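FAQ
Q: What does a multi-component entry look like?
A: The components come first, one per line:
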Amino acid sequence: MNSAPMRSSSFLSVFWQYLLSAIVIASITAIFFTLREALDTTLVALLYLIPLGLITALWGLGPGITSALITFLSFNYFFIKPYYTLAVHQPADLVILLVFLIVAVVISQMVGRMQASLAASTAREREATQLYELSTALAGFQDDRAIVNILAKQIHAVSHGEYVEIHILGAQPFVFQLSEIDLPNRPPELTVPIQAARDVLGEIRLWKTGSAIPSSEKRLLQTFASQGALALERARLVQAESRAQVLEESDHLKSILLSSVSHELRSPLSTIKAAASSLRGHEVNWDSPAREELIAAIDDEADHLNMLVGNLLDMSRIESGALRPKREWNILSEIVGGVRVRMRHLAVDHQLEIEVSEDLPLIPVDYVQMEQVFTNLVSNSLKYAPVNTVVRICARAEGEAIRVQVFNHGPQVPPEHLERIFDKFYRITAADRVTGTGLGLSICKGIVEAHGGRIWAENVPDGLAFNFTLPLTWDGAPPPRLPLDTESE
Amino acid sequence: MSNTPHILVIDDEPQILRAIRTILTEKQFRVTTASRGEEGLTLAAANEPDLVILDLGLPDMDGVDVCTRLREWTQCPIIVLSVRDGERDKVAALDRGADDYLTKPFGIEELLARVRVALRHSTNSQGNQGKVVRAGTLTIDLAWHIVKRGDEEVKLTGTEYKLLAHLAANRGRVLTHQSILTNVWGPADADHTEYLRVYMRQLRKKLETDPERPQIIVTEPGIGYRFIADE
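Then the predicted structure of the entire assembly, as tokens:
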């Protein structure tokens, strides 16, 4: 209630205060006038002091003094004999009138001053509250845009400005504008720099119609600007720190990768080198069966090397976010069938069972990447499952997704490792016991997630199952129905 | 034209050039090599080779552009070489007129098989276009529109036959999704890969001994399909 006079000192509200004061005095006068014969002049004078005090308390010194003068005149005009003139005949009345004027003005001034100092302290309190609100709102944000967004909204709310725009300089400059309304077609009324310890981070521009912006508000905006500068600086420090952390981590990963890769690359290379040099050195007879074996070893190990390099490339592509699926509507059974054909030489010691119906809906996936997922899951299964056991791939539609399972009779994984086996280079067994880069499963995870799916492993009776889901919709569109022809030639 | 086919190999890796030249010379081909695109184009214009083997990753120009420029004046078969994951480039080269592709690293057997298919296809297209295509027990008479498995005629729908006939006429060559769709369904449907997937499944069910392990129409992952006919 008492914030009304201060929140805005625009011309209109001042005018209303004076007008209302006049109306109040007029109404009181009218009431006293009807009771004029019953009331003593002194009593009227005393009663007049009540509305005067209230008006000053409510609307401040200006309306108070004005009301005092109006009251003085109407008192004289209506209640001091002779009525309806400003002349005073009785000396006693003159004394009453003078005393009334002095008392009225003194009261108005005292109440008004009290009021003003109250207003000032309320304003200070509100400034402190607003500042507190701003700094709480800004705490915890580490993104320049989020900080600027909050800053602009708070400034807009506090200043009652028409429009706020914040320009941010630096490595990634941008302009934040309040979106609800259009940018006014004139220069801003107030610009405040966002000044940090070392340099200027940006500028706040405020458009505000009406009278000039009071200095108290300018001061508040400057405080807001420096709060904003602090928040932005803090955010930049945090970002720099996390960048440093990421770099350190990726450095660490790279050294693991290098040691893993050199270990992995060396073993096929040793085989190739040994086989090729013995063939070249004529130590093996041309018709010896060993010759064929050595040649096969070179061929196989070259394929193995090719696969390792492919895995590394895939991983770096996933890491850098460059793995974008080239989606097309595909038939899952065709993809799985292709994998079966391609892996027939590797799956000789196991039975590969496929239960993927060709009547499943079409799925929007990248054919080559999906093949990669199946290849990696199956080769992982072949690696760990005992020989002569079954590795089974099955799939079924579940709501708006397809769920695929690759099951093997391999050893179960302790529950605490189930999630981590999809991490890079994560192994449960010692690194030298199993071959591979430790990247196969994390590549699967990268590809499935790039397709909007989810992958997980679970222990099932007699073995381990890899599960993943793939959405059946593509940008919200369901699998297409085709215009099939049935007529024969 | 002499009897030994002349092959131009354009690749910037000396080791690959050495290996391909050794093997192809051994197999009685005449071989010319170039390590840059411009050099390859000049040699092709001067020698009019019977076949071009073209690496897509050249230092001086895009291999796909080399392909386009060759096709401006010659119909000689082009086999492109590219690294794994280069599907986009392979498809672009095939759509600009290349006949086949090989992914590095490849086996020499595979290269020789592709070279033989490409050379045979180019002689076929110059004259006696084979009207009857055989693949295993399957016989396709392109003149009479008759498809038989053994002695039994296979009933095909109109679209199925058009698709099969297009594949069989281009037997041995890899055909991209887009080119098949454009030829069989028309340019407006060139992006509807799903048509192709579904019709291909139907065709395989009718033609293949084991539709799960297709031997006649094989999938080229990420690229398209290839019809494997008897030699």
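Q: Is there any commentary attached?
A: Sometimes. For this entry: The longest strand of chain B covers residues 78-83.
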